[in-house]
Amino acid sequence: MIKNIIKNRKIIYGMAISDFRKRFVGSAFGIIWMFIQPLATVLVYTLIFQVGFRATPPIPNVPYVVWLIAGIVPWFYFQDAIVQNTNCMIEYNFLVKKVVFDVRLLPIVKLLSAFFAHLFFLLIMFILLIIFGIRIRVSWFLVFYYTFMISILVLGISYITSSINVFFRDMGQLIGILLQFGIWMCPIMYDENLFAGKNSIIIKILQLNPIYYIVKGYRNALIGEEITINWTVETLYYIVFSVVILLVGYKIFESIKDEFADVI
């Protein structure tokens, strides 16, 4: 797979740029729409938790909205990449039907397209952090490490969902529902320490979610006290989990990809 990516890197990059631009063709406001829904989501959660529930900021001297943004930006990338990738075989059915085209490239193209959008979000996030008085530090570059790590997981899941969606077209709706539940299975809007003490078992359950590692990593790098990658059991768990998902997903995709053209 890695050799395939290196060999076709120019094709992947070109298609990803084209895919990214295509998402906003015919739209009056263009790329602005990409930020409206996420910003509205941040505003709603801030109003609910900070204004409504008067939640105490989990980190002293760091506003709740900053804490929220640091954790929800990687989730936006994860969600966008999964949603876009699930339907990629149907969207690019004209390429799937071509024998000469390697359909294994499509999930990578969609992932890279989502990454371009993520770069814009990172830029806006850095600007907002500075506006809210968070000092710039070297550890901010660690977000690219965590972005790479989440990309491995996303690619593995995408190989699974995109291949299944060819035969089971309701996969897109199912993924949407799972993502709605999934965001609450991460400590993004709320502080995990709410479950400390007698409910500590809940924290253990939350830690089984691989996105927990990414969200925690983003926050530590951007606004936390840790400025290096914490090589703990959580890191090893995430690496093993992501690699297994990638290998299984690629194997599933490889085993049934020859039937895509007949079904589509």
Task: Output the keywords.
0% strand, mainly alpha, single chain, 264 residues, 70% helix
Distance between the termini: 24 Å
Main sheet attributes: strand count, strand direction, barrel closure: none
Tally of strands? 0
Mean pLDDT across the residues is 86
Provide the structure class. mainly alpha
Strand content: under 5%
- Radius of gyration from the alpha-carbon trace, in angstroms: 19 Å
Order of helices and strands: HHHHHHHHHHHHH
Domains counted in the coordinates: how many?
A: 1
Instruction: Count up the helices.
Output: 13
Question: What helical percentage do the residues reach?
Answer: over 70%
Question: How does this model look, in words?
Answer:
The structure is a single chain. Helix 2 crosses helix 7 and helix 4 (64-86) packs antiparallel against helix 7. The chain is 70% helix and 0% strand. The chain has 264 residues and is mostly helical. The mean pLDDT is 86. The chain has one domain. It has 13 helices and no strands.
